[in-house]
Every structure is written in C-alpha cells, then in structure tokens.
Amino acid sequence: MSTPAPDHSALEARIAADPRYAALVRDRQRFSWLLTAITVAVYSGFISLIAFDKPLMARPIGGGTVSLAVVLGAAMLIGTVAICAVYVRRANGEYDARLADLLTSLRS
Amino acid sequence: MTRSLVRSAGLLLLLGWATGANAAIAGAVQRQPTNWTAILMFGGFVAITLWITGAAARRTRTVSDFYTGGGITGFQNGLAMAGDYCSAASFLGITSQIFNDGYDGLIYAIGFLVGWPIVLFLVAEKLRNLGRFTFADVASYRFLQGPVRSFSAISTLFVVSFYLIAQMVGAGQLIQLLFGLPYLYAIIAVGGLMMVYVLFGGMRATSWVQIIKAVMLLCGATFLVVGVMAHVGFSFEALFAKAVAVKTKLALESGLSAGDAAAKGRAIMGPGGFIKDPISALSFGFALMLGTAGLPHILMRFFTVPDAREARKSIMWATVWIGYFYALTFILGFGAIVMISFNPEYVDAAGALRGGNNMAVMHLAHAIGGNLFLGFISAVAFATILAVVAGLTLSAASAISHDIYASVLRKGAADPTKELRVSRITTILLGISAIILGVVFEKQNVAFMVSLAFALAASGNFPVLVMSLLWKGCTTNGAAWGGAIGLLAAFGLTVLSPVIWVAVFGFNQAIFPYSSPALFSVPAGFLAIWLISVLDRSPRAALDKAAYPAQRLRSETGIGVHEAAAH
C-alpha cells in the first residue's frame, strides 16, 4: 500500500524537478518551523514565569483582584487560536494556490 | 436522611435494580437522590446515538467505512476532535482543581490547548497526505512494516490504556453520584454502550457521537457560565474578588490568623503548589504540548477528512472550540468556589466535595439550575465519557486489526472481511479490559492518569512521527527501536517518580524527583532514533533513505492520497 500508484510517477518526477516545488516546500517548511518556534518559546516562557516567579504572576493588575497570571493565561488561550488561524489562512490560501498552479501547469 | 434513603431505595426497586443494590444504598447516604431528569436526558442521548449507530451500521461494510466513517468536513471533524479531546476528565478534573487550588487548573488547560498548533504546523497535512487509517500508516510509510507498525501498535495500546482508565474512573464516579448506582454497574454500562457504538457503527457512529456531545457540552458549559456571571453581575473582577473572599473565610474558619487567611485567599489568583520546581513545570508542559501530536485517537481523526486542506480546517475549528471550552472551565471553577463552598448540600464539614473530589461542576450545575440542569449536565458529562472512550477504543482496535493483524501478520494482504471481524473482536476484548481497568483504578485522581498518557505519546509516537516525516536519514531500526526507547524512558521515569514510586509503592523517596518525565524522555526518544539510524548500516537502511524523496513529495503535494469518502 505504501508504493505510489504507477500513473503518478511521471508527474511526480516533473514536480520534483520543478524549482517552484522546491520553493513552495522551502517556504511552507520555514513558515511552519517559525510558528512552531514561536509557540514553543512563548509557552516555555509562560511556564518559566510560573516556575521562577510566582509572586510576580500572583500580583494584581490595576489595583483589583485580577492577577497577571489570569491575564497571561487568557492571552495564551487567545494567542493559541490566533497562531493556528495565521497558519491555516496562509496554508489554505497562498500555499495551496501555488501548489494548484504548479500541478495545473505540469499536468497540461 | 432516613426518608431520602427510603426514597432512593424505592426508586431503585422501581427501576428493577434492587438485586445487588443493597450495598449501594448503604453507601448512598451522601449521594444526590436519583435524578429522573438526568436519566431521561441521558436516555434521550443514548437513543439518538444508538439510532445513528444503527444507520451507520447499515453503511459500514468495508474496513474503510469502519476506520474512517466515509468522510466528513473539516468543520465537522473539528467539532468531533473537540468532542474527543474535551474529556470528562478535563471537564470534571480541571473545574475541581480550580475549585480546590484556584489558578493551577488553568496551567493544565493551556498545556492541553497549546499542543494543537504543534500538530497543525508539524504533522497534520503530511499525516493526511500519507496515511489511510492509523498514524502507523504514516510512521511506517517508507520503512519495513513489521517493526515500525509493531512499535506503533504497542505504543497506541499503552497510551490508550492510561487515557481509558481515567475516563472509566470518571464515569464510575459520575454515575455513582447521579444514579446512585454501584460503581461496578456504572462502569459496565459505559463499557457496554461504547462497545455497541464502535462494534456496529465504527468511525461514522463515533464521529457523530463526538459531534453531538461536543455541541451539548459547549452549550451546557456556556449556559452554566452565564449563570455564574449573572450571579456576580457579569463582572470578572467581582467573580474573582468573591472567590478570594470565600477562600479567605474558609481559611479563617480553619483557624488561621487573619493575615495568613488573607494570603491563603489571594493564593488562588496565582500559580500555587501544582508546579513545585522549574524542571517539573517545563517537563509537564512539554508532555502536554507534544503529547497531543502523538495521541493515536486524535491522529486517527485526520483520516476522516478528504485532504490536507480540510485537515488544517479541522485543527482550526478544534482549537477554537477547545480554547473556548477551557476558558469556560476556568470561569466554572471560580464560580464553584463562589457558589457552592458554604453549602452543606455540596460540601461536607471538612470542606471536601460530596460524591468524590471531581464533582465541583456537577454541584455548580445544581446550584444554578436545580435538578433539571444537574440532569442536563450529568447527561452531558456521561455523553462526554462515552464519546471519548468510543474514540479511544476505535483507535486501539484499529492498531490491532489494521497494524498488527492486516499489515504485520498478513503482510498487507488480509481479507477485508476478516480484518473487519478482527477489529470487532478486538473492540469486545477492549471493552471488557476497560471495565476491568476501571474497577482496578477506582481510587486514582483522573486528571493525573491523563497526563501520564500524554507523556507516553510525547516520548514515543511524537519523535517517531516527526523523524520519519522530516528526516531523510531515519531508518526502520531507528524508528522502531528509538521510539521504543522513548516510550520506555517515559514509562520507567514515571514509575520511579513521586506519583508512583512514593504514592503507589509507598517508598519514602522517589528515585526520579520530577513529576513528569517528558523533558528527559522526549529528547531521549529523538536521540535514540537519530543514533540508531546513523549507526544503521543494514541494506534496509539504504532502502529507507532512498524512499524519502517519494514520501516527501507525496506528503507535500497529496498526490495519491487515500480518500476518506467511500465511493
């Protein structure tokens, strides 16, 4: 099951040789690693703040009861959804369009 | 007291549960009286889902129907993923954790959510483009099938077992509280219904059970949050201020000085004892974050959508709903502090929750909406457990029937009818095992069992998936043995850590001092895969590396993708 169907092989060879394919893969890969790095860094930072400076996190914001920890926690929830939206928008938009162009031009 | 005893005994008799229920009645003093609303609402859920299962069963003829359910959209799959992921363990466990300790529960929730971008960025589209039924299809794509699939299947069974135990224990506690049924009966009911869904309806029934449950859970939790916010005048500041006042008063009553009590009250607004040292904190965080990308029952859901585009949309929606759900649980936990802490109906003299230490949100539902709403939320929580265990069982069954039986034992040439039969027999065996495990682990804290499953998934499956997808040099031996080393490292370190070595075995001092192994076991998995692959000079290793460009091309373009839709 893991061998590709034979009728694809000619097309696959053309794609592999096309510089637009290499560029697409490189761009998408770079973008996904960048967002991964941001996610890991922000999350590690959040956890480290909790681990290293609990008094800071517990400090109320603006004289009320709501603490820095609650605000940052809410920002983490919203930010996580937002970073997914950024990737899906670009991948389903720009990258998919480039892939579709590439496939159309090579199939014709 | 006596009157309510007599009443519950009468209800049990009416229901024909009298045989063997005597012991339960003796222990039922603290329970809620049997709640007919809950039973009716849950009965309604079961009726609808069984009807769907029946309809699905008529259309489940091929193995593809069974494993993928014939294809759904990204939006539907996102809801189903949320339904699969927002387990009863997190609904009951996180709200109760916040009820007890305040802020700490949110740390759990954020860790659960932050795994989704990682799944999206690193594995989702490639997974969809390469795989067909299980994540092992992808992990073993260019490798010798036997070793890599065997590793994946064993790893799946480990991860699923721990996750399943948590769900079953939650189910038992919940039904005990709600129906006044003995724990054992509750577990058997959950195990039995789950077997029916998966056996007859396969993935199609499982998906719809999860979608319906997700909608019910999100609506129910939203309604509860509106109730909480109405109670505090729709002000977050008021909610938190009241919660701090309640905790301060409780501390004063326990005999602390005014200053200490005020400090203890304020402590719920910041991180507390949940994270003790930085290493444990990071380690635990990485287990949650990377574990999501290695959970077999979540990864399996990508094969229910037609292509990578819909796979990405699935995650987008899943993240939206899961993030929303965790925001709700945070508010519900604080709402519970404010609304149920001083009510002897919900909390005993020692300040512990009646009915078990995971029941904060159930009591809150009763405080806000009375028996009617307790009934609804109970039905939702029960539905949640069913939906999650059905997904877990399906992924474990496919690991055995598709990965072990069809791909390893029959070398990919299994008779589809026989493969379907094997998956159904496996489902029955898994259902029985789940019941037994649920009984054995009755007294464990359920949220902790889930984090163990995440650590295993992060250390075994995740490195194997990433290395096989993104590194040309990965070989059969590297993936199979390296993954096994990561898994064993996570398991071994967990056994040696305080949560098992001290709490279960009763030793004084843990050999491994941190509460989660991931910070060590995930790198161990990656390192082992790399090292074994680099040292691998076998002829097979050369084949593995040579097959990478073709795999890469398909993973990036989706050419030759297996469609989920049955034609």
From TrEMBL, chain A:
Keywords assigned: Membrane, Transmembrane, Transmembrane helix
Keyword Transmembrane helix: yes
Transmembrane feature ranges: 31-52, 64-88
PANTHER family registered for this protein in UniProt: INNER MEMBRANE PROTEIN YJCH (PTHR38598:SF1)
Protein name: DUF485 domain-containing protein
Automatic annotation (TrEMBL), chain B:
Membrane topology reported for the UniProt record: Multi-pass membrane protein
Signal peptide: 1-23
PROSITE patterns attached to this UniProt entry: NA_SOLUT_SYMP_1, NA_SOLUT_SYMP_3
Main location: membrane
Chain ranges passing through the membrane: 36-57, 105-124, 151-171, 183-202, 214-234, 279-303, 315-342, 372-401, 422-441, 447-471, 483-505, 511-535
Keyword Zinc attached: no
Name of a matching Pfam family: SSF
Keyword Transmembrane: yes
Keywords on record: Cell membrane, Ion transport, Membrane, Signal, Sodium, Sodium transport, Symport, Transmembrane, Transmembrane helix, Transport
InterPro entries: Na/Glc_symporter_sf, Na/solute_symporter, Na/solute_symporter_CS, Sodium:Solute_Symporter
Subcellular location: Cell membrane
Family the UniProt entry places it in: Belongs to the sodium:solute symporter (SSF) (TC 2.A.21) family.
Name assigned to this protein: Cation acetate symporter
Species name: Sphingomonas hylomeconis
